[in-house]
Every structure is written in structure tokens, then in C-alpha cells.
Amino acid sequence: MVNAGDMNGSGNLMDFLDEPFPDVGTYEDFHTIDWLREKSRDTDRHRKITSKSKESIWEFIKSLLDAWSGWVVMLLIGLLAGTLAGVIDLAVDWMTDLKEGVCLSAFWYSHEQCCWTSNETTFDDRDKCPQWQKWSELLVSQSEGASAYILNYFLYIMWALCFAFLAVSLVRVFAPYACGSGIPEIKTILSGFIIRGYLGKWTLLIKTVTLVLVVSSGLSLGKEGPLVHVACCCGNFFSSLFSKYSKNEGKRREVLSAAAAAGVSVAFGAPIGGVLFSLEEVSYYFPLKTLWRSFFAALVAAFTLRSINPFGNSRLVLFYVEYHTPWYMAELFPFILLGVFGGLWGTLFIRCNIAWCRRRKTTRLGKYPVLEVIVITAITAIIAYPNPYTRRSTSELISELFNDCGALESSQLCDYINDPNMTRPVDDIPDRPAGPGVYSAMWQLALALVFKIVITIFTFGMKIPSGLFIPSMAVGAMAGRMVGIGVEQLAYHHHDWIIFRNWCRPGADCVTPGLYAMVGAAACLGGVTRMTVSLVVIMFELTGGLEYIVPLMAAAVTSKWVADAFGKEGIYEAHIHLNGYPFLDVKDEFTHRTLATDVMRPRRGEAPLSVLTQDSMTVEDVETLIKETDYNGFPVVVSKDSERLIGFAQRRELILAIKNARQRQDGVVSNSIVYFTEDPPELAPNSPHPLKLRRILNLSPFTVTDHTPMETVVDIFRKLGLRQCLVTRSGRLLGIITKKDVLRHMAQMANQDPESIMFN
After folding, report:
1. What DSSP line would sit under 539-598, residue for residue?
2. Do 602 and 559 fall into the same domain?
3. Is residue 234 within 8 Å of 250, Cβ to Cβ?
4. Strand residue runs (E) in 113-236
5. In angstroms, what CA-CA distances link 181 with 52, 80, 211, 270, 280?
6. Is 104 left (phi over 0), alpha (psi -120 to 50) or beta?
7. How many independent structural domains does the chain possess?
8. Same-domain check for residues 188 and 290
9. Co-location of 530 and 632 in the same domain
10. Do 662 and 742 share a domain, yes or no?
11. Residue 567 sits in the same domain as residue 601
């Protein structure tokens, strides 16, 4: 027998794994990262840098660069996200107007920019200028009449179809991951799941280009959700330039959390709302350091967008409003009613959209994504054109619905009957009876509302970039504006009623319909996404309406309560479950009285657990075990008889270690003994060199006893981000619980299909 002392000559060969080899510590696609391990690796890296920094000036400078790399990444993300958002906004404005006409003086100008530069524009006809021509004027020299209307109608549909076809083709050919909102996948990625290519360079490029095309096509979708995906792609790109982030999946996710905040910051011009959105809605692990960096990234992104000034109003906010009337306590009742409407709309939308998406997945419909996009675009364009409220871009519609009716407003919504004897200042116009324009606008808004509700259900989830924030806000804003006009007219005609008597005297400006639109928008967005704090902050940053926080809070909370009464899932969680991603939601409660032994594998009647022994298996035995099973890792025990637990070895690292050993270490053959102990086992004199794999062994795997309540196990998986947990009794291995097992058990307990959880 040969003991360890006689093998010193080859010790350096056997211990070659004490040096790291390529790809160790990386993860396969569609697998979950090990948060504890990533945290431990980062701590080791930091400790090494700190100790080296005392050795020389150069090492000290390197340690400073490492410390500052996080802030540099945030700066770069903010600059790129802000620039892309500004370019997208400008391109969308131009291409949306291109469906209706073209600027003769400079074809790259949108309608608004074209008439800004004109010297022949009057204030009353500020949308009409000789430089801007509709397609009918350009092609047949007619601006009015049936033939001009039909030609404009036809070209509107053709442009919309052209934009949508180009977008879906680009997504299908170059970047399949560029479709959808991206937020469900980003939530899953931030929880530790790996989806390779989802945040890649091609996805970034195609999503940016196709986002402009689909929003310009007039489909019922927004660009705000996809902008979060675009910002996270920027974050992933800049992370790959710094080894601190590129080699540690846990650290990379801190950067992506901050990038999501920058995305919302540029989507809405709401930097603080962006940080809160990342914290409340998308992030899984959000330490204080990430909060500061998110704040910085959101600030830089907002500043970059403000410098580009895409809205041309020198403001960062999308829908700036100035209301001249405070709100009154009696108005809380209609605000709460709007909250109820928002909750009901959210529930209806989620159920119908998920049913449609499930149908798309399980029937032949899913095989024709291009045809589906073309059909929905054609239906949208045909129905949208005759109604002025659906023809324009959704952002413009929301802006008009939020606006207060001043003396200079030319909108139909402001067609009130004025008192000829009125001598009040411009800003303080009293409530007036509605004119014919307001009544026709109410009919058009009602039709537009029904159309938006129905078409958005079928649009969200198609194979094109599609956000949900703006369509949801449009639904709420239309409902809110109609309620606002109703309350305003009620107050005008019945100002002697007890509810109006105290605060609405004749000739006073009591009710602001635009405020109701704002509250309705918040309620509907809250009903769909179940956001609360970040939603209110985004809304007041979006509009500048700081004194209307209480109505917004009342509507947001009511919509969440009502929607939660019908189901706890928001739209993003529902899509995560639909796609079978292994997402363990922090908000879910587990109250069932089951134990670890009920969930662990192997169960009674199943084959015993596949394990490695510490020093009695050959390379061939290990390779056979890997080939015959598809497990992500194997517990290491003292021997098959004792089953005393030593540690845990990952499948990927075993494969890489054996492959590297065969290439780099002489004497390693199929019947070489594999050992995980510090010292090699005693071997026969002519036996081949053993292979030491202690370096890849996790000596402190997380373990629970078989009588641990599942409530505790679920909490451990959530808070520590575990991939798997071993079940023991008195140090003896009994089984294993993976994240997938936990999710399937939770689904089973909730009477759902456990097989819907597809990934590890």
C-alpha cells in the first residue's frame, strides 16, 4: 500500500485544482445562482484586494479603482439609458406624425417641430402651417372632402402595418428576447435566474429600434416597461467591462437593480419613483449600497434626458399639469370610486390577458406571431382612425385628459358655454355648463375607453416590445375625465345640494376634471401592477401635481385592495407563473403545516439519492453518474453505508474539473480514484494517480432536519436565495430539497398545477 507521505513527488500535480481553472463558478443557462456562494466569493475577493493594497502604491491605486468601479458603471448606465430614451422619444414623435403627413421644410421634423419653425402660424391655428402637409394635400392637393379622408385613412393603416411588420420581423430574426415588456423576466433574473442573451447587445439594439416602430404604429402599448429592459441591457453591457461584476452573478444583479431604476427614471422623468419602483416591484435583493447607486444612476439618466429635451418644453415631466383649484374632502368619494374601477379593470385585464396568452402558447395561434401582429395592427388602425382620441398617440391623449381647461385651450373637452359678462382673470375660470363639444367628446371618450380595454388585452404579450403602463393609464384617464366632467356638471347645476353647499358656491371654480383623470390613471395602473408607494411618487413626479398626493394615495390603495380581493397576483407575477420561471415571490405567504420530509426527494418508493463518496469512487464511476442523471449537483458522503454528510459538489464543476485534469495532469485515467479529503487515500503500489477534487467541494452546504416546518424552509430559500438544501437526521443524509421542489409544493398546496414550474 502507498501512503500519503510516499506521494509527495506528485503532490503538486494532484493539487493543481488549488489554482482556479476556466469557467469554474459559472452557471448554465436556465439555472439559478447560489447567492450565498456568490456573496462568499465577493468577500474573499475584497479581502484579497484589501490585504494587497498595503503592499505597494500600485496595489493601493488598484483597490481605489475597484472601489470606484461601481459608481463609474452607474454613471455610464445613466448616460446611455438617458441618451437612448431621448432618441426613442424624438423618433416616436416623428414616426407617429409620419402616418398623417410630412414636413416639407425638413422631413425629419415632427408636426409640432415643423410648425414651431414656421413664421405663418397663428396661436389659434398653431397646429396648421403651410410647411406641414397631410398626405392627401401632398398627393392629390386636397385637404378636405371624402376622397382626401379616404386617402389619409388608407395611408394611416398602411404606415401602421409597415411599422408593425418591420418590428415583428426584426424581433423574430435577430433577437427573440426583445419581445414583450421584459419586466417579468427582469424580476426573475434579479431573483437569481440565468437567461443567457436576454440582456445581450443584440437584444438592446433590436429592442431600441423596434420599440420606436411599435409605438409609432399606434398599437395599444407603451414604451415605459420596455425602457426598463433597455436600461438593464445597458447595465449588463457595462457590468461585463469590469471583472468585479462580470465574474460574480450576485454583484451583477446589484447593478441591474440600479439600471431598472434608471429605466423608470427616463421612462417617466421620475428619478425618485424609479428608485422606489426598483425597490418595491422588481428587485429581489436590495442592500442600502444599491439604493444609493440606484439614486445616482436615476439622477444621471434624468439629467441626460433633460439635456436632450425630447418634449421641447424644457421639463423632464411627461404630462406637466397646473391646476388652480385645491381638492375638497367630499371629492374623496369619487376618487375612491375610481380606485374601485381601477381594481376591477386590473383584475379583468389580468384574467383575460393570461387566458389569451395561455391560448397562444397551447394552440396553433402561437405558430404565427407575424400574422397575429399584422391582424391586431390592422384592427387597431381601422377602428382607431375615425375617433380623434384613439388616432393620436396615447401619450398625447393622456396629456390632453390631464389638462385643466384654461382660456386658451382649443380642445373639444373645453367647449363650455361662457358667460359673456365674465371679468375674472384667465387662471380662475368658474365652473360652466358643458357645450355641445363636451358632450360629443364624452361619447367619443366612452367609445375609446371600450376599444382600449378590449384591444389592450390582445396586444400585450405579442412577439413585439410592449409596455403596459401607458395603456393602463389611458384607460384610467378616460374613465376619470368622464367622472370629473360628470361631478363638475352636477356641482354646477345642483350647487345647493348639501354635499356641494359648503365648498362650491355659484361662480366658483370647484371641480377640476383633469385631476380626476390623473387619479383614474393612477388607480388603473395600480390595479394592473399592484404598485402603491412607487406608483404615487411616479404619478406626482410625472405631472408635477405635488399637492394631490392624498387623492392619488386613496385611489392607489383602494385599487390594490379591490384587485387583491380577486387575486393576489399582479400582471408581472401572472406572466412569470405562465412562463414557469422559478420565482419565489417575497410577497407570497406559506401557511400550510407540512414538514421538510414531505417535500424532500427521494420520496418513499423512489430510487435512492445519487451521491458521491469521499474517497472510494473512480473517475469512470463519477462520469457514469453524471451521464445517467441530470441533477445539478451531488451530496458527498463518507461512504454508501454510513451516509454521513461531508459536503456538496456541483455537476458543472465536476465535469469541468475532470475535463481539465485529463488535459493538464498526467496519469489521470478512468480508474483513477477521486477523493474529496485533505489527504489522499491509501492505494495499491501500481495504481494510477488519484484525483483530488476538494477545491470544488462546498464543505458547508445548507442543511435542515427532516422535521423542519416547510414554512421555515420556504423562508430560508427566500431570504438566502438557496438553490438546494440537504435534509439530514443526526448528521446522516436523508434527501434533498431544491428551489423547484419548494415552488412545486407551494403550487400543489394552492391547488395549482405543480408541473407548471419548468426550470431549475
Report:
1. HHHHH--GGGHHHHHHHHHHHHHHHHHH-S--HHHHHHHHHT-----TT-------BHHH
2. no
3. no
4. 132-134
5. 45, 20, 10, 19, 18
6. alpha
7. 3
8. yes
9. no
10. yes
11. no
From the list 36, 254, 28, the residue with the least C-alpha distance to 721 is: 36
> Can you give the CATH number for the domain in which 614 is found?
3.10.580.20
CA distance 215 to 546: 29
Residue whose C-alpha is closest to residue 759's, from 629, 579, 569: 579
At 127, give phi and psi (nearest 5°): -90, -5
In whole angstroms, give the CA distance from residue 218 to residue 159. Answer: 10
DSSP β-ladder status, 101-103 and 691-692: unpaired
Percent of the chain with pLDDT over 90: 49
The enclosing domain of 150 has a CATH number of 1.10.3080.10
Which residues constitute the domain of residue 695?
A: 596-750
- The predicted-structure confidence for 546-561, as pLDDT tens digits, reads as follows 788 999 999 999 999 9
If we measure between CA atoms, which residue out of 430, 436, 441 comes closest to residue 405?
430
Are the C-beta atoms of 199 and 82 separated by less than 8 Å?
no
pLDDT of residue 118: 67
Do 154 and 285 fall into the same domain? yes
Each as own residue / partner, the long-range contacts of residues 238-246 (CB below 8 Å, 24 or more positions apart, any chain) are 238/73, 238/76, 238/77, 238/80, 239/73, 241/73, 242/69, 242/72, 242/73, 244/45, 244/66, 244/69, 244/70, 245/69, 245/73
Cell of 500: 356641494
Percent of the chain clearing pLDDT 70 (strictly above): 91
For range 234-255, the mean pLDDT? 93
> Can you read off the three cell numbers belonging to residue 343?
381594481
pLDDT, residue 485, reads: 92
Q: In sequence order, what are the residues at sequence separation of 6 or more whose Cβ sits closer than 8 angstroms to the Cβ of residue 649?
A: 612, 633, 634, 636, 676, 693, 696, 697, 698
* 578: amino acid identity, one letter: L
Does one domain contain both 565 and 613? no
- Residue 13 has what DSSP assignment? H
Is it the case that residue 575 has pLDDT exceeding 50?
yes
Q: Using the structure block, give the residue that is written with the C-alpha cell 363650455.
A: 416
| Residue position matching grid coordinates 382607431 | 384
Interatomic CA distance for residues 569 and 588, integer angstroms: 9
CA distances from 366 to 168, 177, 359, 648 (A): 14, 15, 8, 41
Q: How far apart are CA 512 and CA 592, in angstroms?
A: 50
**Range with the lowest mean pLDDT among 34-43, 248-257, 428-437, 507-516?**
428-437
Which residue, among 159, 167, 272, has the nearest Cα to 210 in the 3D structure?
Answer: 167
The answer to the question of residue 54 being in a domain is no
Whether residue 437 is contained in a domain is answered as yes
